[in-house]
Design brief:
This protein is an alpha+beta fold and 1056 residues long. Among the domains are: 32-73 and 92-464, YVTN repeat-like/Quinoprotein amine dehydrogenase (Methylamine Dehydrogenase, Chain H); 965-1055, no CATH class. The chain is 37% helix and 18% strand. The protein has a five-stranded mixed beta sheet, with no helix packed on it. It is flat. Belongs to the VPS41 family. Its main location: other.
């Protein structure tokens, strides 16, 4: 812890406040002659300080004390002669997630915003919390102490500076932007531009540290840019950015710069008698856009930043970060206060109605042997170099004080704070932050809503003004009942904060209690307490302490008003100890919203473990409490022990299957008991409808059915995903009957669920339900065949043995068992058919040669598997077979019937083929619809376009007339059945043959029709040409060139 101490703490070891200030006896501020030379900016002028400064001593404090809470120190001793006055503040040590932080780490930096709290630790961890101390985000951007942390105004980014030399900026909302800059030297301060989130292309922030450079960083899409705004004046200790102005503190003093123009605005020099800059951290706080509060060591400065007289009349708060210029500003130090402490934090405080100043004061016990010259200072790498002091003791610190100082240097309030381990902490270990809630819905903000946060390495304290409720409470604590009633009357119902005039009646009630009239006081309390919840609760708790709670229980209200849950819990716990039956009545009467069931249950469980006389009532109470608390799973075990039939409906309705994983045996036993009782009741009533009783199966196999076992078994098998099979079987190890019921129902639902227990299932089926054994053997493939056969062999289950032998491949032995032990020829035949083994048929025939009954059975069941001639040949001479003639006649009849069926099938097939051929022929010979755009598949010309005409025949006859056959052939087209189209002359290359056939046909027409043909030569020539084409096509000489060529190519490829 000491090694990771903040820089301020390390620098304060052995240095007293008075020695650090030297011989400061004068109240004058440093003169301008004491300004440190400025080499870099010769044109810059220092700000003139007021002619006089004010020293604030304890004698100027008003007579105020703080005994508000455990946070305020109780070490102050009030003057007995002075009347105690009401404190100004109330303090609350914040808990929640912050306790986990302080348990493993120490806080080193702190900041607040409208909705968030930022906390940095010595381990380099950043915690972002809301004001309810709920963790929003946690990350560790650093490996060493975080010295500074800032949250952007829009609360989208948080920036930190650390001893490890890194600056980190992490996005809190709207994305996951993380930027870490390693500057290789310990960084003490960081500040983001106020509108950092609005400039994604050019985001600016400022950093400073032990390197002494105040650097402006610009982070954009094209890269990062660094500009050193100031250097060579020692380390940078603090930085704040407001609008376009940046203020920082270094070893020589305080400077203000205009970021936009990089022009220095002001320079406030440290006094020569002030402690070294590295000993105590400088604290800035902007009370307004025009006023800056500076707290450094024991000095408070109020700095005004106003517009110059010749500047335009634009308020400074409205000047954006890109428009303000230092030439418009005038900076002055209005006031300087000196205090008798070291300032650990400063901020404006207006909750009192005036512009006051709040500081966190750190004081130490005076020691004579400490010197200001002995100190420690961090080195360049962030470590602490020790310088041997005159005294090796660290001066013990006193409790830090929260002081309110008025604008005229009057100390209004000073409250010591009860900080954990305050003796070990130094001024730089504390942080003070101011939170002013923003105005909502256009309304002006309330000054009473202002609050302060005080952080130490191990504490976070919320400081708020005491409200009217606190004021009334304080008067009641001091027995000023009259004043309290008057305050309630003035405030009215809305402003009374829970108090009422009925509190005056407490005097009467207290009087009755002092007289021992408890019953009378209980009867009189309802009209006095009325609807005052707090009064009711106090009254009930007081009677509880006096052992008279029973007198007030009948009068306790449950509605209007409804008391706190603790009250009803106290009553229930009291009834638990004194009257369990009344407790059960109250549980059923009261709404579960009145009390916390989780607070009553532990007491009830403890009482049940010690009290067996009322165990039934107590278990009922516990079960009903669990159900009311929406924990029905925990109530199941108690309902099962109480044998409540509704437990199964409770499990199903609330999906409590996971909760009853370990209650399987108890459920089955209870369900079995319910079924037996129902069966006995039905038997007593003489009812024959036993299905309604859902009887449990007995050892008789004909009564076993998975759906008849019980509600418990059904529940277990239906929800194996929540109640594993292995978990149930482990509980049923010593209950074979229950194991059989469970596994059999499981197999009925899904045969694959109980595969791990298949061998046990076979054994249980053989014991409890043989009729279902064969079904299981045929359906399941997960059991061991050898074990199953041994079980069946021991019990002489022949059919099962036959099946298992067949599964194992020992078909001859299985067939022998069927023939020898069962004597069922039909079964033997079926077995042989199932195995489909010729050798097995041969064995069956050989076994049957000497058995007439088997031969008759084989003859009656001949088929494709048995050749009847082969069977008849194997019959021995002289063997008498009953009804052999009838069997042979039946074989012949079956053979003739088979032949008849084959012939009929053939006739049907021939008829169908003929019909389909006709359909195909008709469809192929139908006319085809022509398209004028169709082209010849050979010459690629339109079919309507004439091809080259035939010019001559073999006899030298020229066909050049307009009506000649050659000319008509040039326009004739052919479409084959394959739907390929050609010009006639593109298919028939032999024009001579075509013309000769046409002339031959023309001669035939002349002989038949006479000279009338010559009169219509053109028409007859066209007809004859078509007729000639048809003859050639039918003769097979003309065919589709494309299809013929494809067929030839296919034949040639096959031959190759």
């Amino acid at each position: 812890m000491d090694e990771a101490r903040d820089l301020g703490e390390a620098g304060n070891d052995g240095v007293s406040q008075d020695e650090a200030r030297g011989q400061q006896g004068s109240s004058k501020c440093p003169s301008l002659d004491e300004v440190v030379p400025r080499k870099q900016f010769p044109e810059e002028e220092a700000i003139t300080n007021p002619a006089e400064s004010t020293e604030i001593h304890p004698s100027q404090q008003q007579e105020l004390s703080s005994h508000n809470s455990s946070i305020a120190s109780s070490s102050q001793e009030d003057d007995g002669e002075d009347e105690e006055e009401e404190p100004l503040f109330k303090y609350q040590r914040l808990e929640g997630h912050i306790d986990k932080v302080f348990k493993n780490d120490n806080g080193s930096a702190f900041t607040t915003s409208e909705k968030l709290i930022g906390l940095g630790t010595h381990n380099g961890v950043v915690y972002i919390l809301n004001h309810r101390i709920e963790l929003i985000k946690r990350f560790r951007p650093h490996s060493a102490t975080i010295y500074d942390i800032k949250i952007e105004v829009a609360e989208q980014f948080v920036a930190t500076a650390s001893m490890d030399g890194k600056i980190s900026i992490v996005q809190l909302a709207g994305g996951n932007d993380v930027f870490i800059l390693d500057l290789k030297r310990p960084m003490m301060a960081v500040a983001m531009e106020p509108l950092y989130h609005k400039h994604p292309n050019k985001r600016q922030f400022i950093s400073g540290g032990l390197a002494g450079n105040l650097t402006l960083h610009e982070k954009g899409w094209l890269g990062n840019k660094e500009t050193i705004l100031h250097s060579d004046e020692g380390s940078i200790w603090s930085v704040e950015w407001k609008n376009n102005l940046v203020v920082w503190a270094n070893d020589t003093g305080i400077r203000i710069i205009d970021v936009n123009t990089h022009q220095k605005v002001a320079y406030i020099i440290r006094g020569a008698d002030e402690p070294r800059a590295d000993l105590y951290r400088c604290h800035f706080s902007w009370s307004t856009a025009e006023k800056l509060l500076v707290g450094w060591a024991d000095t408070i400065r109020v700095v005004s930043i106003k517009e110059a007289p010749n500047a335009s009349h634009i308020p400074l708060s409205l000047i954006s970060t890109s428009s303000a210029s230092s030439s418009n500003l005038s900076v002055t130090v209005d006031m300087v206060f000196h205090v008798d402490c070291i300032i650990s934090g400063i901020c404006a405080w207006e909750a009192g109605g005036s512009p006051d100043i709040a500081i966190l004061a750190h004081t130490s016990e005076p020691e004579e042997d400490l010197d200001v010259g002995t100190s420690t200072q961090p080195s360049d790498d962030g470590t602490v170099d020790s310088i041997t002091p005159r005294s090796s003791k660290r001066k013990p610190a006193q409790r830090p004080e929260l002081r309110i100082i008025s604008s005229n240097a009057k100390e209004i309030s000073s409250d010591p704070l009860n900080i954990k381990s305050f003796q070990r902490y130094q001024p730089n270990d504390y942080c003070l932050c101011h939170l002013v809630p923003p105005p909502g819905n256009g309304k002006k903000k309330k000054v009473d809503d202002e609050s302060l946060y005080v952080m130490s390495p191990q504490d976070l304290i919320l400081v708020e003004l005491r409200n009217r409720s606190d004021h009334i409470s304080w008067m009641i604590e001091h027995q000023n009942y009259e004043g309290a009633m008057k305050e309630v009357e003035e405030a009215g119902l809305a402003g009374a904060h829970g108090y009422s005039l009925s509190e005056i009646g407490h005097k009467y009630l207290n009087h009755l209690i002092s007289q021992g009239q408890f019953q009378v006081a209980a009867n009189a309390s309802p009209p006095i307490l009325a609807s005052d919840v707090e009064a009711w609760e106090d009254w009930i708790f007081m009677l509880t302490e006096k052992g008279q709670l029973d007198v007030i229980i009948p009068h306790v209200p449950t509605e209007s008003p409804r008391l706190s849950k603790v009250v009803y819990e106290v009553i229930l716990v009291h009834l638990l100890r004194t009257n369990p039956q009344e407790l059960l009545n109250m549980i059923r009467k009261w709404s579960p919203e009145l009390y916390s069931i989780s607070a009553v249950l532990p007491s009830a469980l403890d009482r049940l473990s010690r009290d067996f006389g009322n165990s039934g009532i107590l278990m009922t109470c516990i079960a009903e409490l669990y159900i009311l608390n929406h924990q029905p799973g925990k109530a199941v075990s108690y309902l099962l022990r109480l044998r409540k039939p509704e437990v199964f409906d409770l499990i199903k309705d609330n999906n409590l299957f996971t909760d009853v994983q370990d209650q399987a045996l108890l459920m089955i036993e209870f369900s079995d008991e319910l079924n037996r009782k129902n069966l006995e009741r039905l038997q007593d009533e003489g009812s024959a409808d036993k299905d309604k009783a859902d009887p449990m199966p007995t050892t008789r196999p004909d009564e076993s059915s998975p759906r008849e076992y019980s509600a418990a078994i059904d529940l277990l098998v239906q929800h194996t995903y929540s109640i594993p099979v292995a978990r149930v079987m482990a509980q049923l190890t010593d209950h074979r009957r229950y194991q059989f019921m469970y596994l059999d129902a499981l197999f009925e639902l899904d045969p694959s669920l109980g595969t791990d227990y298949a061998d046990l299932h076979v054994d249980l089926l053989a014991e409890f339900n043989r009729q279902r054994l064969m079904k299981f053997l045929r359906s399941s493939t997960f059991y061991n065949l050898g074990k199953a056969y041994q079980i069946c062999h021991d019990l002489d289950f022949v059919p099962e043995m036959v099946y298992l032998l067949g599964r194992m491949g020992n078909n001859k032995k299985a067939l022998f068992l069927i023939i020898d032990r069962i004597g069922d020829v039909h079964r033997a035949i079926e077995f042989a058919k199932e195995q489909n083994d010729d050798d097995l048929w041969e064995d069956l025939l050989r076994y049957s040669e000497t058995r007439p009954a088997f031969i008759r059975g084989l003859l009656d069941n001949v088929g494709s598997e048995i050749d009847p001639i082969r069977l008849i040949h194997r019959i021995q001479n002289g063997l008498e077979i009953p009804d052999l003639k009838a069997s042979i006649i039946k074989i012949l009849q079956d053979f003739h019937l088979q032949i008849s069926l084959i012939e009929g099938c053939r006739s049907i097939m021939v008829s169908d083929c003929r019909d389909l051929s006709n359909v195909y022929y008709t469809s192929q010979t139908l006319g085809a619809l022509g398209d004028p755009t169709l082209r010849c598949q050979k010459c690629n010309k339109l079919l309507t376009e004439p091809n080259k005409p035939v010019t001559a025949t073999e006899e030298g006859i020229e066909l050049v007339a307009e009506t000649s056959i050659a000319e008509m052939g040039s326009t004739l087209s052919i479409m084959f059945l394959c739907r390929h189209s050609f010009h006639s002359l593109c298919v028939f290359d032999s024009n001579t043959v075509l013309a000769a056939l046409a002339e031959q046909q023309l001669d035939r027409s002349r002989s038949a029709l006479g000279n009338s043909v010559d009169n219509h030569t053109g028409r007859f020539n066209a007809i004859n040409l078509k007729f000639a084409q048809t003859l050639i096509l039918r003769s097979g000489e003309g065919s589709c060139p494309i299809c013929t060529s494809g067929s030839k190519n296919a034949i040639q490829s096959q031959l190759k």
